[in-house]
Amino acid sequence: MDWNRTKTIFIIVFSILNVFLYWLYLDRQMSVGSMQSLGKTSIEETLALENITYEPIPFTKKDVSYLSAHIATFSNEKLKGLSNQSFVLIEKSRLLSHMKKAVKVTEGKGEYYFDEFLRKYVLHGEDYVLWDVDEEEQSAVFFQRVKNETIFYSPNAMLIMHWGKDGEVTHYEQSMLDEFLSFNHKKDLLSQDDAVSSLVTRGYLKPDSTVMQVKSGYSTLVQLTETQVFAPTWNVQVKLKDGTIENYFINAIEGKVIEFQSDIVEESKE
Question: How far apart are the C-alpha atoms of 214 and 235, rounded to whole Å?
Answer without folding.
Answer: 6
